[in-house]
Amino acid sequence: MGRTMVGAFIVLLLAYPASADDDPLKEDLAAIQGKWAVKLTDQDGEPVRAVKEIKGNRETYTLFKGEEIVLKREVDIKLSRADNKVRICTVTRVTSVKGPEEGRTFDVDQSYAYKTVGDFFIEVDSILIDKNFEGLPPQLVAWRRVKK
What we know:
Strand content: over 45%
Largest sheet: 8 strands, antiparallel, barrel
Shape: globular
Distance between the termini: 59 Å
């Protein structure tokens, strides 16, 4: 009888294997894949365009002034959830490809809350407890998915 129960249990495990659909973080990562863009202003009030492209756990962030690339960074990211209610993206490593600190790679621990809604990737910076953004006002950025 014991062997039959163990055998039945194994059959049930094989019949219902865990899938990516069972892991909300894999679903979250799948939802943010692709290219996103937003129009912003720089510290001098001049218009700039930012593009982020996410492939796996790596994001390439590029800032354009007109057609000129003024900043480009490759960033490693890690997703998590707080109490399964708030999605959090944590930047763990940054490589500066163009701009200040070009060629430098450094480890960081900077997080922001985010959500995807349709063709929008909405991030809110400076709202989580993070020493890197202490004293800064929250900033909401609504990135739009770039369609091919």
